[in-house]
């Protein structure tokens, strides 16, 4: 085993960094890692068993649920319930937050916001999907935790991470002291440290956006796309366009190679599509910790005060130089289009 560091070993080693934690956060991260392995097993054999396709149900956002969405949701809730460290789970797949009222969770101090399986449209076609999670400390001191405990700004996150079920499976997380990536070694069933201290390049040449919606984009985004397509050797343009349609996969690639991922407001989604609590905040925390930037076009994602569980926001995230340029264009054109100003 020389030279290999498993996620479990790494978490325990780093536990000393949390002055306030007595091992609970470490156990919570470990529980998420275990649930991720179970989900990974199902994702990998998806084509072989009756788990592809629609579950026949619709979530609060009116989106059809896939069987794997539902499976992943159940696995994470069950891992977090039996782990005993978490008092509330807020998930994309449930209308309301899920209070955890088990004897082991009586004094639990953590809140978990999670998108159990993101990138649903890619599930049935063997393209990478992901899990995104965010961990907060509970603010209230007694009784059952409430919605107010969940509606914290992204700056309050104590940890965040994602799992990408791709050509290999990786878990990437931060506790506010840099970003580390672990690759699942299927032969030993462990996530092993493979990408220590990940840093997003300051500048890049990949832009990721669903350009099919171009006609509905705000002017600032249209201008940025035009800028991305101009020939300019000094700034490495035209940029390369890469859009998988799985936020985790698109952002993971840009984290490694440099780039910008944009999901703006559109005429049909005036507040953006992606959810603040369990999609944008965790990814923003990770990217900032890797040296990048995450903005809604006008302000830092992590500073948005959430007012509802399934709140949406626009997002511009990735290499600092690219995001700042896109923000500049958003500000320049915002006056002409007040409807597209920040969600
Ligand atoms: P989901 O939570 O329903 O899976 O939607 C989130 C996904 C992101 O992973 C992805 O980047 C985006 O939606 C793609 O949306 P679109 O198909 O509109 O480009
Ligand atoms: Mg999602």
TrEMBL record:
Pfam families with a match to the protein in the record: FBPase, FBPase_C
Pathway: Carbohydrate biosynthesis; Calvin cycle
Binding residue positions for substrate: 118-121, 210, 243, 273
Residues binding Mg(2+) 1: 92, 115, 117
Highest rank taxon of the organism: Bacteria
Catalysed reactions listed for this entry: beta-D-fructose 1,6-bisphosphate + H2O = beta-D-fructose 6-phosphate + phosphate
Residue span(s) of domain Fructose-1-6-bisphosphatase class I N-terminal: 5-196
Domain Fructose-1-6-bisphosphatase class 1 C-terminal residues, every copy: 200-330
Subcellular location: Cytoplasm
Cofactor details (free text): Binds 2 magnesium ions per subunit.
One GO term describing the cellular component: cytosol
A GO molecular-function descriptor: magnesium ion binding
InterPro entries: FBPase_C_dom, FBPase_class-1, FBPase_N, FBPtase, Fructose_bisphosphatase_AS
GO biological process, one term: fructose 1,6-bisphosphate metabolic process
Requisite cofactors: Mg(2+)
Binding of Mg(2+) 2, residues: 115, 118, 279
Entry keyword set: Carbohydrate metabolism, Cytoplasm, Hydrolase, Magnesium, Metal-binding
Keyword Metal-binding assigned: yes
Keyword Transmembrane helix: no
Family from the record: Belongs to the FBPase class 1 family.
PANTHER family: FRUCTOSE-1,6-BISPHOSPHATASE-RELATED, SEDOHEPTULOSE-1,7-BISPHOSPHATASE, CHLOROPLASTIC
UniProt subunit comment: Homotetramer.
Stated name of the protein: Fructose-1,6-bisphosphatase class 1
Organism: Pedobacter cryoconitis
